[in-house]
Specification:
By secondary structure, this protein is mainly beta.
Length: 85
């Protein structure tokens, strides 16, 4: 079984702060991409599903951009771009 890894990077780029979190996990099925940012949504049980919701709200409040790239069986990448000023 392959080790699960999480990669993290943060750097300035063209007047923005770019943060990327990427893993080699199971990925997210396409039909779930629209719901992963909904308050309380989780595939892991009750009383969960607030992290992505709160993160997306914060990024929106800061006039940032949040992108998700995923492939089932390969992993997921979350990229956040925030204005530096």
């Amino acid at each position: 079984k392959e080790d699960r890894l999480v990669f993290f990077s943060i750097h300035p780029l063209g007047g923005k702060l770019v943060v990327e979190v990427r893993d080699n996990g199971v990925g997210i099925e396409n039909e779930l991409l629209e719901t992963i940012f909904q308050k309380g949504f989780s595939t892991k049980g009750d009383e969960r599903g607030y992290g992505l919701y709160l993160t997306k709200q914060s990024i929106d409040n800061l006039r940032g951009n949040f992108q998700v790239q995923t492939k089932v069986g390969v992993g997921t990448s979350f990229v956040v771009e925030l204005p530096l000023c």
